[in-house]
């Protein structure tokens, strides 16, 4: 209690009644007596706690604004003060929780003072709602933790884990997930998941989702934020149901994007949301933008490495695949030059055929390299027309038959008649040739090559399978990279450039189709091409 001499009223004409000043003060002012009953309650208190002064006078403050779990401590402290005990809480800034008239709990900052009145001691509390201030510092802490995590992480994977942890731990979310689309943009993969201690996950913990599925799928597809205020009521999503069964009630997701395209989604799940929708979405969007920029930066670093690697591989290709036929041509021509007279006509023809085969091989490589260059510069134009896929498949099979017969291979074709697609027939033939010639090349003598196709109202699935040398699992993710050759081919010294599949995939994708490796087969290799029947977007010329 302040001695009167330490405070001063400088001009008695200015302020007549201190209670009037308190009544209009912007802070909440509440006074209670030794029993804890309210004796003063200003307009600021009404604004902060939601109760009107006339409703609260004479009522126990604990019942009005103190969360039930803190009431015993409050009453004990008040009893100590009223009994003249040491006032350790007086005059200090206290950070407490209060309950609003509408039932929600919120943080307050409060200073307590005491006066001695004729009727006994009075305790005066000056309080303000610090929800916004706390939110600002909490958000700043999350942003700083995310920025630190991104700087310190040594890989994209580690960075994703640090982001999920920074958001989950600082914001108190039960589950935080970062989902990214795979390179083919056909699946979303959960790159990082942070769960609060003790949080069960059960069927909720899936690691892959198809595009458009679940909250991450929806966010990625819409490239916009999505709120699910009541997971249990979200009947469309199996993941929402799984979330509800492990005690998660609300969820928010924002897209992670870079350079205008959606890369994935940052999603948080919890039992309630404290912050207003737009504020929280803005925070998460800011974090997602940091993640997007980081991933883009990493990607360009990876591309630079890839470029350097490609250059090396190109050199290797030049040395092996181009030098060999050139050496054969040089040797055959000098042989003919030196010993022409000693060769019979048949032997001369044999040498000429050797030269022609090597020249042919070189022109295939040159053509592939040119195609690849056109594809990569975006200059490969499709000449779209109504195309009979069945006929193209049969022609391509006819073209490989002589080689297949030389190797005593069986080529089976089971394709419906007259499959029509709107496509570039020359390029589709190139796809058929590449897949079939690979199947023949990578299948030992006596093996079987099977071509099948099935048609649905929307697309065509076309499979080229063989029971040949197969592709080891470790090589599969890299197969569609320029110059990449699987260890199974390199070890057996089967010639090739590693260009065919890249070209094939680009052609298929330009037709808005997909090409994948069937992972379910146990022997050999099967490539599955899916082409939409409807026309691809205008791309003539
Ligand atoms: P290339 O056959 O000229 O090396 P591709 O781009 O057509 O180049 O194929 C890339 C690699 O994929 C091949 O080197 C080979 O390792 C593997 N591959 C492609 N098709 C098959 C197949 N049917 N069976 C086994 N491996 C294959």
UniProtKB/TrEMBL annotation:
InterPro entries: GAF, GAF-like_dom_sf, HATPase_C_sf, HATPase_dom, His_kinase_dom, HisK_dim/P_dom, HisK_dim/P_sf, PAS
EC category name: transferase
Residue ranges of every copy of the PAS domain listed in the record: 20-85
Domain Histidine kinase, chain residue ranges per copy: 317-535
Subcellular location: Cell membrane
Pfam families assigned: GAF_2, HATPase_c, HisKA, PAS
Principal subcellular localization: membrane
EC number per UniProt: 2.7.13.3
Catalysed reactions, semicolon-separated: ATP + protein L-histidine = ADP + protein N-phospho-L-histidine
Keyword Calcium among UniProt keywords: no
Key words of the record: ATP-binding, Kinase, Nucleotide-binding, Phosphoprotein, Transferase, Two-component regulatory system
SMART domains given in the database record: GAF, HATPase_c, HisKA, PAS
An annotated Gene Ontology molecular function: ATP binding
Protein name: histidine kinase
Source organism of the structure: Actinoplanes sandaracinus
């Amino acid at each position: 209690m302040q001695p009167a001499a330490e405070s001063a009223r400088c001009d008695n004409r200015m302020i007549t009644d201190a209670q009037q000043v308190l009544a209009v003060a912007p802070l909440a002012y509440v006074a209670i007596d030794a029993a804890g009953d309210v004796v003063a309650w200003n307009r600021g208190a009404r604004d902060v706690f939601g109760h009107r002064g006339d409703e609260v006078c004479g009522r126990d403050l604990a019942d009005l604004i103190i969360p039930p779990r803190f009431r015993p401590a409050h009453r004990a402290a008040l009893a100590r003060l009223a009994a003249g005990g040491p006032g350790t809480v007086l005059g200090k800034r206290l950070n407490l929780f209060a309950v609003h008239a509408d039932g929600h709990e919120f943080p307050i900052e409060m200073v307590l003072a005491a006066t001695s009145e004729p009727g006994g001691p009075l305790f005066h509390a000056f309080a303000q709602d610090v929800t916004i201030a706390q939110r600002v510092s909490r958000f700043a802490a999350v942003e700083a933790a995310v920025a630190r995590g991104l700087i310190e992480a040594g890989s994209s994977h580690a960075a994703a884990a640090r982001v999920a942890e920074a958001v989950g731990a600082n914001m108190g979310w039960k589950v935080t997930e970062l989902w990214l689309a795979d390179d083919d943009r056909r699946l979303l993969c959960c790159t990082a998941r942070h769960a609060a201690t003790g949080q069960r996950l059960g069927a909720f913990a899936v690691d892959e989702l198809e595009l458009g599925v679940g909250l991450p799928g929806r966010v990625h597809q819409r490239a916009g934020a999505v709120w699910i205020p009541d997971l249990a009521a979200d009947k469309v999503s199996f993941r929402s149901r799984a979330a509800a069964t492990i005690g998660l009630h609300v969820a928010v997701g924002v897209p992670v994007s870079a350079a205008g395209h959606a890369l994935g989604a940052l999603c948080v799940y919890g039992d309630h949301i404290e912050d207003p929708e737009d504020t929280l979405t803005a925070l998460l969007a800011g974090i997602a933008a940091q993640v997007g920029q980081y991933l883009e930066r990493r990607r360009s670093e990876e591309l630079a490495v890839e470029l350097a690697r490609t250059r090396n591989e190109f050199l290797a290709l030049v040395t092996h695949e181009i030098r060999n036929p050139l050496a054969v041509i040089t040797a055959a021509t000098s042989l003919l030059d030196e010993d022409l007279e000693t060769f019979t006509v048949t032997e001369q023809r044999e040498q000429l055929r050797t030269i022609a085969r090597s020249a042919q091989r070189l022109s295939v490589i040159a053509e592939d390299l040119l195609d690849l260059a056109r594809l990569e510069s975006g200059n490969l134009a499709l000449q779209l027309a109504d195309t009979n896929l069945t006929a193209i498949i049969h022609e391509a099979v006819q073209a490989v038959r002589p080689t297949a017969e030389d190797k005593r291979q069986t080529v089976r074709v089971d394709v419906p008649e007259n499959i029509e697609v709107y496509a570039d027939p020359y390029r589709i033939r190139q796809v058929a040739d590449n897949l079939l010639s690979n199947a023949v090349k990578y299948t030992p003598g006596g093996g079987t090559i099977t071509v099948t196709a099935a048609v649905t109202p929307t697309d065509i699935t076309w499979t080229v399978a063989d029971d040949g040398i197969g592709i080891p699992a470790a090589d599969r993710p890299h197969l569609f990279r320029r110059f990449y050759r699987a260890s199974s081919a390199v070890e057996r010294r089967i010639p090739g450039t590693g260009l065919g599949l890249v070209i094939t995939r680009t052609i298929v994708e330009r037709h808005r189709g997909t090409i994948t490796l069937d992972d379910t087969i146990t022997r050999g290799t099967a490539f599955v091409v899916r082409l939409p029947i409807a026309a691809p977007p205008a791309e003539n010329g």
